[in-house]
């Protein structure tokens, strides 16, 4: 079976600096992969380049989603193709309610896929159900997007967006950062609830603790712009004990 | 630059170019036989206009007096706008569809070409069509170049005692009211453009709401400039008698033409005791093309007088069109406990220049005013808020709150805020808040990751930015205005 997401020998530069140096990764539908790595290893660069952010230049290699190259696609077309990025720092948009944003987003994606837009009433019901599952207040749907949201609320809101957009490939960029343990559990539950046989997930994190709640199938260690080790979930536990020092050394050597 | 980025930018440019044709969808012109006064401006032209309209002697004298004053005045140069010298002798000052000469009694007699124009613009002139639709009913006065084509729902309004007609008709049918109020809010020689308007004004709307009457429907005037090289000088006079209420909306469009066209209007509002006027504008004159060719010069004086106690006047404007805008809808808070409000969205794209704002003149006791201004600049546009809050000696306990927010899109546009605040009364409380922000690449990327294209993302962010003002528009127009905001900014990102 071919992979859902296939990253082949990916080299990425920001300005003059090469950040990713030949990264290979293959995620099949139904799998949850975790990428762990020290600061500066290229974790955020990977999430941005997958989502198509300006300024991240692919100098070599390719990214394929369902066999189709994303490299030349703009960000919205990648979203329409089924890629979702939960942001480490979700952005605020004053004056635009969460609900309006969700509706605009879902309808943009549906339009892009040649599907009919959802009418207001059925969309409202659809979102309310999703929000309930994540224990989000209705009130939060009426507030301007992320404005005045706590760290936990912002992250839960990212997961709400994910559950509403139902992507085939979800990337979670440091979703645990800034969360207390209760918020972490709620977020992880939300993510775990979305695991299914059609969907791939890539969880990018610095710490092991998120992986206690979102159990990955495979763990990779990213250092110096490359995957330096791939293993079972136990790899994350080892890392928690020994730290990243070994791997950083490996690359330098 | 990466190939991907180049592709995206090229796609954006292509998309914008493909949109440019439909971007200003009101840009068509109507091929119709017009009767024009000869080019240029002199006493004879004024006499010609006055005679065309069969005006009484006093109004002709009034015009001629304004003209004499105009000759001694010079064009204001303090606004932050630049445009080539206007040759006032190279313009037509009167243009009317020939078919209107026979004074059609009903719409059946109006030239079908004119009716088609309004159909294309989406302006309902047939009352039964309005009734059939789900839309709330709005009475319309349609002004085409220098004349009013039709006014709808006149009879129904008359039953409520409301007078809603073209200015020319008002001069004939209600001369006492016109004579009593004309020029009492905006004096003839208030400024260069009001003097010009007073001399040559052609048509416009007249509204009178009798005491203790709530106008039974929204009133609106739709202005259309069609003929090339023709100035439009309309005049609106709206009087809300004691204890009355009216909500009024004006809309404006013009064909796309390579040369600039002059529009110098005067609007006067009078609110008597306990009366309230809500005046909304959706200004969408042709803004010129991407290179800054063509477009309307919009030099407008609008002023409301809260003449007696407890009166309230509220201006809401969405300014998206015109090459150059010079406009400061103001309130004179003359009575005690009067309220003045100004809610504004001004959007500049490409080479548009905007110098707009308001004046709140506090004369009475316990007067309060509120100014919410949202300026959006994109492309190579320049957008200045210019506002005056002035509290006079006897205006005890005057209050003002001003909030001016500017949003910049890209790095070739500019925003300016020029507030003048003066008080001669120590009990006044005046607040002024101002912010300037930019749509960040992060915000755009976030929206794009959620499936919105760049244009849609900008439109969403801008609509959020304008929300405080949009919610003050009459509901029927809020949705349209929201769309307009998006359309005006097409091509602003790339």
TrEMBL record, chain A:
<feature type="domain" description="ABC transporter">
    <location>
        <begin position="5"/>
        <end position="249"/>
    </location>
</feature>
<keyword id="KW-0067">ATP-binding</keyword>
<dbReference type="InterPro" id="IPR017871">
    <property type="entry name" value="ABC_transporter-like_CS"/>
</dbReference>
<comment type="similarity">
    <text>Belongs to the ABC transporter superfamily. Ycf16 family.</text>
</comment>
<dbReference type="GO" id="GO:0005524">
    <property type="term" value="F:ATP binding"/>
</dbReference>
<dbReference type="Pfam" id="PF00005">
    <property type="entry name" value="ABC_tran"/>
</dbReference>
<dbReference type="InterPro" id="IPR027417">
    <property type="entry name" value="P-loop_NTPase"/>
</dbReference>
<dbReference type="GO" id="GO:0016887">
    <property type="term" value="F:ATP hydrolysis activity"/>
</dbReference>
<dbReference type="InterPro" id="IPR010230">
    <property type="entry name" value="FeS-cluster_ATPase_SufC"/>
</dbReference>
<protein>
    <submittedName>
        <fullName>FeS assembly ATPase SufC</fullName>
    </submittedName>
</protein>
<dbReference type="InterPro" id="IPR003439">
    <property type="entry name" value="ABC_transporter-like_ATP-bd"/>
</dbReference>
<keyword id="KW-0547">Nucleotide-binding</keyword>
UniProtKB/TrEMBL annotation, chain B:
<protein>
    <submittedName>
        <fullName>FeS assembly protein SufB</fullName>
    </submittedName>
</protein>
<dbReference type="InterPro" id="IPR000825">
    <property type="entry name" value="SUF_FeS_clus_asmbl_SufBD_core"/>
</dbReference>
<comment type="similarity">
    <text>Belongs to the iron-sulfur cluster assembly SufBD family.</text>
</comment>
<feature type="domain" description="SUF system FeS cluster assembly SufBD N-terminal">
    <location>
        <begin position="154"/>
        <end position="214"/>
    </location>
</feature>
<dbReference type="InterPro" id="IPR055346">
    <property type="entry name" value="Fe-S_cluster_assembly_SufBD"/>
</dbReference>
<dbReference type="GO" id="GO:0016226">
    <property type="term" value="P:iron-sulfur cluster assembly"/>
</dbReference>
<dbReference type="InterPro" id="IPR010231">
    <property type="entry name" value="SUF_FeS_clus_asmbl_SufB"/>
</dbReference>
<dbReference type="Pfam" id="PF01458">
    <property type="entry name" value="SUFBD_core"/>
</dbReference>
<dbReference type="Pfam" id="PF19295">
    <property type="entry name" value="SufBD_N"/>
</dbReference>
<feature type="domain" description="SUF system FeS cluster assembly SufBD core">
    <location>
        <begin position="223"/>
        <end position="465"/>
    </location>
</feature>
<dbReference type="InterPro" id="IPR037284">
    <property type="entry name" value="SUF_FeS_clus_asmbl_SufBD_sf"/>
</dbReference>
<dbReference type="InterPro" id="IPR045595">
    <property type="entry name" value="SufBD_N"/>
</dbReference>
């Amino acid at each position: 079976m071919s992979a859902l997401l296939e990253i082949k020998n990916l080299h990425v530069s920001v300005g003059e600096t090469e950040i990713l140096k030949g990264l290979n990764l293959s995620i099949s539908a139904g799998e949850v992969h975790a990428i762990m790595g020290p600061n500066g290893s290229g974790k955020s660069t990977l999430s941005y380049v997958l989502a198509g952010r300006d300024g991240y230049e692919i100098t070599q290699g390719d990214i394929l989603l369902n066999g189709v190259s994303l490299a030349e696609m703009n960000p919205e077309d990648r979203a329409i193709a089924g890629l979702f990025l939960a942001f480490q720092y979700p952005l605020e948009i004053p004056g635009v309610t969460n609900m309006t944003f969700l509706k605009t987003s879902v309808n943009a994606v549906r339009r892009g896929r040649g599907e009919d837009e959802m009418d207001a009433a059925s969309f409202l019901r659809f979102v309310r159900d999703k929000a309930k599952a994540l224990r989000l207040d209705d009130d939060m749907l009426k507030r301007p997007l992320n404005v005045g949201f706590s760290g936990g609320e912002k992250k839960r809101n990212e997961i709400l967006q994910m559950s509403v957009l139902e992507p085939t490939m979800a990337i979670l960029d440091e979703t645990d950062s800034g969360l207390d343990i209760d918020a972490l559990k709620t977020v992880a539950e939300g993510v775990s609830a979305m695991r299914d046989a059609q969907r791939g997930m890539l969880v990018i994190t610095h710490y092991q603790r998120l992986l206690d709640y979102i159990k990955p199938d495979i763990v990779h260690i990213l250092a110096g712009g490359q995957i330096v080790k791939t293993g079972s979930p136990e790899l994350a536990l080892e890392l928690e004990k020994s730290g990243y020092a070994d791997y950083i050394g490996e690359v330098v050597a | 630059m990466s190939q991907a980025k180049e592709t995206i930018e090229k796609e954006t440019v292509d998309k914008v170019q493909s949109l440019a044709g439909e971007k200003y969808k009101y840009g068509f012109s109507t091929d119709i036989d017009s009767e024009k006064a000869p080019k240029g401006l002199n006493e004879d032209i004024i006499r010609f206009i006055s005679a065309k309209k069969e005006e009484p002697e006093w109004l002709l004298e009034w015009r001629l007096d304004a003209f004499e004053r105009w000759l001694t005045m010079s064009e204001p140069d303090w606004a932050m706008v630049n445009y080539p010298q206007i040759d006032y002798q190279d313009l037509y000052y009167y243009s009317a569809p020939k078919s209107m000469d026979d004074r059609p009694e009903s719409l059946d007699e109006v030239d079908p070409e004119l009716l088609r124009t309004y159909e294309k613009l989406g302006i309902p002139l047939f009352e039964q069509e309005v009734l059939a639709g789900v839309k709330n009913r709005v009475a319309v006065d349609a002004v085409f170049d220098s004349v009013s084509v039709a006014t709808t729902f006149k009879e129904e309004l008359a039953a409520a005692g409301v007078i809603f007609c073209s200015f020319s008709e008002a001069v004939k049918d209600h001369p006492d009211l016109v004579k009593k109020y004309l020029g009492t809010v905006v004096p003839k020689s208030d400024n260069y453009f009001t003097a010009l308007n007073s001399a040559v004004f052609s048509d416009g709307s007249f509204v009178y709401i009798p005491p203790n009457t709530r106008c039974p429907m929204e009133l609106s005037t739709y202005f259309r400039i069609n003929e090339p090289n023709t100035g439009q000088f309309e005049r609106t006079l709206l009087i809300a008698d004691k204890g009355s209420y009216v909500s009024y909306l004006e809309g404006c469009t013009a064909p796309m033409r390579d040369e600039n066209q002059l529009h110098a209007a005067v609007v006067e509002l009078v609110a008597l005791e306990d009366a309230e006027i809500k005046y909304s504008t959706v200004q969408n004159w042709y803004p010129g093309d991407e290179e800054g060719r063509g477009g309307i010069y919009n030099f407008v004086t609008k002023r409301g007088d809260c003449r007696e106690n407890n009166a309230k006047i509220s201006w809401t404007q969405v300014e998206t069109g015109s090459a150059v805008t010079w406009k400061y809808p103001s309130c004179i808070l003359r009575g005690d406990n009067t309220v003045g409000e100004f809610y504004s969205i001004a959007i500049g794209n490409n080479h548009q220049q905007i110098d707009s704002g308001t004046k709140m003149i506090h004369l009475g006791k316990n007067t309060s005013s509120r100014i919410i201004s949202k300026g959006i600049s994109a492309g190579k546009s320049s957008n200045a808020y210019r506002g005056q809050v002035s509290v006079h000696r006897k205006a005890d306990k005057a209050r003002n709150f001003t909030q001016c927010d500017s949003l910049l899109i890209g790095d070739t546009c500019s925003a300016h805020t020029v507030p003048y605040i003066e008080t001669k009364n120590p009990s006044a409380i005046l607040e002024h808040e101002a912010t300037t922000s930019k749509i960040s690449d992060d915000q755009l990327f976030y929206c794009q990751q959620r499936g919105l294209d760049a244009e849609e993302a900008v439109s969403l962010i801008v609509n959020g930015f304008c929300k405080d003002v949009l919610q003050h528009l009459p509901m029927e127009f809020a949705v349209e205005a929201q769309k307009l905001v998006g359309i005006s900014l097409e091509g602003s990102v790339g």
